[in-house]
Amino acid sequence: MNIRIKNQQDFWSGVMFVLIGVGFALGATKYSMGTAARMGPGYFPFWLGTCLAILGAFVALGATSKKTEETTVEKFDWAVVLILLGSVVLCGLLMNYLGVYISVFLLVFISSFASHVFNWKVAAITGICLALFVWAAFIEGLGLIFPLWPTFMG
Amino acid sequence: MELFDNLLMGFSVALTLENLAYCLLGCLLGTLIGVLPGIGPVPTIAMLLPITYVLPPTAGLIMLAGIYYGAAYGGSTTAILVALPGETSAVVTVLDGHQMARNGRAGAALAIAALGSFFAGCVTTFLIAGFAPPLAELAFKFGPAEYFSLMVLGLIGAVVLASGSLPKAICMIFLGLLLGMVGTDVNSGVARYDFGIPELQDGIDFAVVAMGVFGFAEIMTNLELRDQRVDLTDKVGQLYPNKQEFKEAWPAVVRGTALGSALGILPGGGAVLSSFASYTLEKKLSKEPERFGKGHPAGVAGPESANNSGSQASFIPLLTLGIPGNAVTALMIGAMTIHNIQPGPQVMTSHPELFWGLIVSMWIGNLMLIILNLPLIGLWVKLLTVPYRILFPAILVFCTIGVYSLNYNVFDIWVTAAFGLVGYIWVKLKCEGAPLLLGLVLGPMMEENFRRALLLARGDYSTFVTRPLSLSLLVLAVLLVVLVALPSVKAKREEAFVEEG
C-alpha cells in the first residue's frame, strides 16, 4: 500500500502529537487514577494525553487525504540551532564557575557566529558592551544576586 | 457616582511618582521593541517578569501593560515609515500607511495613527471601567463547573479567532495543558512527570516556555533569512493631517474603536484580528474602495484605532474573570500569581488599587505615548539601522539572565534552550506557540475546577450540561468550532489571513 503524504507539515505535527499524548497518558498510569468523584493525580493528565493522541491521529490522517493542501517541511538550519542553543547551554554551564561577566561575554561572542556576517571585532565589542550593561542594569540597578567572577579568583 | 470615585482612586494610584515612572518605562520599552523587528511583546514581557519580583505588584503590572500597548504603537511607526511592521497587529497599517508616506504625507499618517490610537485608548479605558464591575459580579455566581466551561470557551475562542490550522491549534492547547501538569499535584502532593529532577517538581515556569518558544525560536528563524533592510522614507513632513484627511479619518477612528473593543473582549480577539477586521470594514463601507492601498487615511485610522482598543479591551476578561485571551494576557496572569494575587473577579474587591490603578495607567500611558513619540520619531527610526547581528546576541543575553534570575538556578537556562529547540521545530511544522502558552497557564486552574466540579457532583459528568450557565458556555464553544468548520466560513477565514502571512 502506498499512501502519499501530501501535507508534510501536518503529518509530522500529527505524529508528534500522538507520540507526546501517548507518552503523557502512559506516564499518568504510574499515578493513582481514582474515580471521577475523587480523582487521583493520574486522572486528568491521562485523559488529556488520550485526547491529544486521538486528535493528533486525526491531524496525521488528514494530511494523507487527497483534498489537503500540499506542504513540505522546510530544511532545518542545524548550524544556527547548534551555535545558538549551544552558546546558551554553555553559558548556563559556566555561570557558576566563571561568573556572569565572562559567561555573558562568551554567550555573545559564540552566538555571533550564527550570523551571516560575522566579524571578530564587532562580536567582541558587543560582548564587552553587553557585559557592562548587565553590570549596570542587573547587578547595580536591580541588585540581582549573581556569581560575579570566577570561583578560583575568589 | 461610584464609577467616578473608582476612577479617582485609580488616578491617585497611577499618578504617584513611582507608578508614573514605571508606566513611562513600560511605554518606552514597548515602543522600542515595537520598532525593532524580530522581537515582540511576548518574549519581552517574559524576560522582564522576573524583574517585577522586586517591584510592588501595581508598578510591575503597569509596566508590563505599558510594554504591551507601547509595542502596538511602535509597530505602526515602522509600518508607516519603512513598510516593516514591527508587530503583527501593524501588518495592515503598511498597506495605506506606507503609501501615504510615499506620497509625502508620512507625518500626517503618523499623527492619524497616534491620535486614533489615543482616542481608542480613552474610550476603551472608560469601557473597562464601566463594564468590568458588572462582569465581575456575574463571575461571582460561577461555580467550578462554570469556570471549567468558561475556560473551555476561552481556549476554543482563542484558537478559532487566530490564524492557522484549527485542529493543530487545539492539539497545541492540549499540549500546553499537559505541560501544566508537570510538577507537584496540589491535591495529593504527588510529583508528576518530574523524572526525579527536583527542579521540575515546582512545575515548568511559563516564562521559560515563552522565552524558549517565542524568543529563541524566533531568533533562529530570523537568522535563516539574510538581513533585510529597506530604505527609509527620510522625510516625515508636516505632522498635521489636513482638513480633507481629517474628515476622512475620524469616522474610521470611531468605527475602529467600536470594532476593536468588541473583538478585544472575545477571547483570542485582541489587536491582530481587530486591525484586519477594521481594514476590511472600512474598505467595504468606503465610497471609493479603489483608493485603499494607495494611501487612504481611513486605511490607517481604522486599523490603528482598532488594534489599540482591541489590545486594551483584552484586559477586560483578564481582570474580571481571570481568563487570558492571548499570550500577553496569559503572561500577565503569571505576573499576578508571582505577587500572590489570585486572578479572578475578586481582584476588584481585594486589590482595588491595583485594578483601578492599572486601568487609569493605560489612559495615562496612551497620553505619554502621544506626547513622547511624535517628537521622538526620528530617534526611533534611527534604531532601525541597528544591525541584527548586534541585536540578537543582546536578546539572548536578556533572556538568559532573565531566566536565571527566576530561581537563580542554571537548570532553568537549559530548559529554556530545550524549549527553543522544540519551538524551532514547531515553527517548521507551522504549529503555533500562543495556544500552548494559554494552555500552560490555564492547565492547573482547569484541572482544579474540573476536579472540584466533579467532586461536588459526585462524579456525575452531566453537571457540566445540567447547570444552565455552564451549558450555555459550552454550547457557545461548540458553536464556534462548528461555525469555523463550515466550508463557506473556512474559505473566508483563510482568505482573511492570507494577507497576514
Q: What would you note in describing this structure?
A:
The complex is a heterodimer of chains A (154) and B (501). Chain A is mainly alpha-helical and 154 residues long. In chain A, 63% of the residues lie in helices and 0% in strands. Chain A has 2 domains: 55 residues; 76 residues, no CATH class. In chain A, helix 3 crosses helix 4. The relative contact order of chain A is 0.11. The mean pLDDT of chain A is 84. The radius of gyration of chain A is 24 Å and the shape is flat. Chain B is mainly α. Chain B has one domain. Chain B has 21 helices and 2 strands. Chain B has a two-stranded antiparallel sheet with strand order 1-2. In chain B, helix 5 packs parallel to helix 11, helix 9 packs across helix 10 and helix 13 crosses helix 18. Chain B is globular and about 65 Å long.
Strand content of chain B: under 5%
Structural class of chain B: mainly alpha
Per the principal axes of the C-alpha atoms, what is the gross shape of chain B? globular
Order of strands in the sheet with most strands of chain B: 1-2
- Provide the domain count of chain A: 2
Structure keywords:
heterodimer; A: 154 residues; mainly alpha; 2 domains; flat; B: 501 residues; two-stranded antiparallel sheet; 75% helix
Q: Gist?
A:
The complex is a heterodimer of chains A (154) and B (501). Chain A is mainly alpha-helical and 154 residues long. Chain A has helices spanning 8-28, 43-62, 78-111, 120-141.
Topology:
The complex is a heterodimer of chains A (154) and B (501).
Chain A: H1 8-28, H2 43-62, H3 78-111, H4 120-141
Helix pairs in contact in A: 1-2, 3-4
Chain B: H1 2-14, H2 17-35, H3 41-48, H4 57-82, H5 91-139, H6 144-160, H7 166-181, E1 183-184, E2 191-192, H8 206-224, H9 243-265, H10 270-285, H11 297-313, H12 315-321, H13 327-338, H14 347-350, H15 352-383, H16 388-407, H17 410-429, H18 434-456, H19 463-466, H20 468-485, H21 487-498
Antiparallel strand pairs in B: 1-2
